[in-house]
Amino acid sequence: MRRSRDKAPSLTASGVNVAFGGFKALTDVTMTITPGAVHGLIGPNGAGKTTLVNTLTGFQTPTTGQVGLAGRDVGALAPHELRRAGVARTFQAGRLFTGLDVLDNLAVTGVGLGHSRSASEAEAMKLLGWMGIAHLAEQPAAGLPYTDERRVGIARALMFSPEFLLLDEPAAGMSEAEASDLADLIRLVADELGTGILLIEHNVGLVLSVSHHVYVLDAGQIIEEGDVDVILASQAVRDAYLGADQEAA
Ligand SMILES: Nc1ncnc2c1ncn2[C@@H]1O[C@H](COP(=O)(O)OP(=O)(O)OP(=O)(O)O)[C@@H](O)[C@H]1O
Asked: Residue 45: which residues within 8 A CB-CB, separation 6 or more?
């Protein structure tokens, strides 16, 4: 399953602004997602995390600024075009095709990417096996337990090895033990597949435990970035994020 990391370019946001009418959801956001590494994105409710994921995956066009892939400005590409270019995502809600079984959920994605049905099924089985969930292949997607649904959502996003994977609150509603299993999977995807990951999570402990580099977003702006030690030592982060968390507690 391993892929050479050297071939994979970075996914970048450069001076990205997104405005909804007069409201600025993102202001001058710059970030780099590199292959084979886990990047965390944290911030209080409404900070703009999902808007940023949407912008990096073609669901939202930046008002100004660039989204770059291999040095090419891809900010105007549609989601399916970015997916074909190697940028995959999951959604807060699983968004599986509930009328299909797990194998077909993955295979349909492969066909959508331009692969044959048989090649897509083979890729799906290989991926499910690699993730240790091959036993789910013939299960209807509709009846899956929550954590399995999340895993299948990640498996579907990983079809045909995207260079980048953006995970939008994958641990929402999970117990600490389930979140810990998810952390193992995220590490494995980065380490073994060489995928560049952006992890958006309210579970700060999970983000800090798996991320090589963390970005902190507050009111649409990156207020801090760095490794875990930098984030833990940051007064700005305490004020903006952990402070808000403590007030809510
Ligand atoms: N399509 C839209 N039109 C208008 N405002 C929007 C739109 N999408 C998001 N917003 C606003 O932009 C801000 C950022 O929202 P976003 O969902 O990106 O934040 P978030 O950090 O992901 O929040 P949460 O942690 O609660 O999921 C919020 O104030 C939100 O209400």
From this structure: none
